[in-house]
């Protein structure tokens, strides 16, 4: 048996990543928590071509910007554990949005295998993805899968082992435009001279510093000459923002999406005779993202959420309140009848029963709020 290969599964929420994980590993799974947090950590194993492969299912994230706990966990694992390979599972029917995470993985220097999941949905839309061109432009293998039918899963197992053994340098690069690129090149040379004790690709580090990534800025501050480096970064950011007329983080994000929009346009083709065909999701997207009615619609949904939480939750809150009030009276009378001291009766009725009731009285509102948020997330509205 060959050496152990470690791979990570990365992808947006609802991309089918967990289904891919289950299909790859079967019953050979272990569930725990990520160090220091209560976020679930799933690991599994499979064998392929004589190699043992350990699979870590990273939390579903839309980016690696470390704004949320899930994003921070995923990024820290990639930076610290440095897996042999990352399988990026993306929803092929939402290519542009899902490729944003892939672009960030490649900028980070990760060796990536791209899994275009749910290709059956793409075919139903009458769209064909040129996987060869996509693979050539990104410089990564591209595999088409339908994970819930286990279509393409065996190919992932095979390609993962082949790619993990290759000593391939990631050459992916997004052109951020002449002004920003000039600053990036200058700062890379500046940091190279400093010989920083970091294992990040310098270009990725510079881009993150220019974006104002709080975690990276803090780590840089703790390094020797950190303050000097941050001052140089701040000067360059200020100059660029003055030249661009808006904040640099937004400019970098827009450049990424601009690149991905062009990439998707180049690698996707609508079948003949289906150019005007729109599925239900497309039609809904056109309405909810309309620049005139999008905001009023959002405010309307928030109002409906408020009504759901407090109008439906109100009677349940009153019911719980009445129940604990009644329970307190019954227990109080029972304690008095057996001659319990006043302090003990007060502790049980006012302290324990009253305290529990004061907490549980909010339960209906909290349940309905999370139900509403879950429905909005599952519908794709909050994606």
Automatic annotation (TrEMBL):
List membrane-spanning regions: 292-310, 352-376
Q: Which GO terms describe its molecular function?
A: ferrous iron transmembrane transporter activity; GTP binding; metal ion binding
Keywords of the record:
GTP-binding, Ion transport, Iron, Iron transport, Magnesium, Membrane, Metal-binding, Nucleotide-binding, Transmembrane, Transmembrane helix, Transport
GO-annotated cellular components: plasma membrane
> Which positions make up the signal peptide?
none
Q: Where does Mg(2+) 1 bind?
A: 22
Q: Which PROSITE patterns match?
A: G_FEOB
Task: Please tell me where this protein is predominantly located.
Answer: membrane
Where the record annotates domain FeoB-type G, the positions are: 4-166
Membrane topology designation: Multi-pass membrane protein
Q: Mind telling me which InterPro entries this protein's record contains?
A: Fe2_transport_prot-B, FeoB_Cyto, FeoB_GTPase, G_FEOB_dom, P-loop_NTPase, Small_GTP-bd
Q: Which domain of life does the protein's organism represent? A: Bacteria
Q: Where in the cell is it found?
A: Cell inner membrane
Annotated residues for binding of GTP: 11-18, 36-40, 57-60, 117-120, 146-148
Positions annotated to bind Mg(2+) 2: 23, 25-26
Provide the function of this protein.
Answer: Probable transporter of a GTP-driven Fe(2+) uptake system.
Q: Quote the PANTHER family the UniProt record gives.
A: FE(2+) TRANSPORTER FEOB (PTHR43185:SF1), FERROUS IRON TRANSPORT PROTEIN B (PTHR43185)
Family designation? Belongs to the TRAFAC class TrmE-Era-EngA-EngB-Septin-like GTPase superfamily. FeoB GTPase (TC 9.A.8) family.
Which named protein is this? Answer: Ferrous iron transport protein B
Q: Gene behind this chain?
A: feoB
């Amino acid at each position: 048996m060959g050496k152990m290969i470690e791979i990570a599964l990365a992808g947006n929420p609802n991309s089918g990543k967990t289904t891919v994980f289950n299909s790859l590993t079967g019953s050979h799974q272990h569930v725990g928590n990520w160090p220091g947090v209560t976020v679930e950590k799933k690991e599994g194993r499979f064998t392929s071509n004589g190699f043992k492969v350990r699979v870590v299912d990273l939390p579903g994230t839309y980016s690696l910007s470390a704004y949320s706990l899930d994003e921070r966990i995923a990024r820290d694992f990639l930076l610290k554990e440095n897996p042999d390979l990352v399988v990026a599972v993306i929803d092929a029917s939402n290519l542009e949005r899902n490729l944003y995470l892939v672009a960030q993985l490649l900028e980070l220097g990760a060796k990536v295998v791209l899994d275009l999941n749910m290709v059956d949905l793409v075919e139903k839309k009458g769209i064909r993805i040129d996987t060869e061109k996509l693979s050539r432009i990104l410089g990564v293998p591209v595999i088409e899968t339908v994970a819930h039918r286990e279509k393409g899963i065996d190919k992932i197992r095979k390609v993962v082992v082949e790619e993990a053994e290759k000593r391939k340098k990631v050459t992916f690069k997004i052109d951020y435009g002449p002004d920003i690129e000039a600053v990036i090149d200058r700062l890379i040379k500046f940091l190279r001279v400093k010989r920083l004790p970091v294992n990040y690709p310098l270009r990725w580090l510079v881009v993150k510093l220019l974006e104002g990534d709080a975690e990276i800025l803090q780590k840089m501050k703790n390094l020797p000459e950190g303050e000097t480096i941050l001052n140089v970064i701040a000067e360059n950011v200020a100059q660029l923002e003055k030249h661009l007329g808006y904040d640099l983080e937004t400019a970098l994000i827009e450049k990424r999406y601009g690149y991905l929009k062009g990439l998707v346009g180049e690698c996707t083709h609508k079948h003949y005779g289906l150019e005007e065909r729109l599925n239900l999701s497309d039609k809904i997207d056109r309405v909810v993202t309309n620049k005139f009615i999008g905001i009023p619609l959002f405010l309307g949904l928030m109002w409906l959420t408020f009504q759901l939480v407090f109008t439906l939750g109100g009677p349940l809150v009153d019911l719980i309140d009445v129940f604990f009030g009644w329970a307190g009276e019954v227990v109080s009378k029972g304690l008095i009848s057996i001659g319990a001291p006043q302090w003990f009766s007060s502790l049980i009725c006012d302290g324990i029963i009253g305290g529990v009731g004061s907490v549980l009285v909010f339960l209906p509102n909290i349940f309905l709020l999370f139900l509403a948020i879950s429905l909005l997330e599952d519908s794709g509205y909050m994606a």
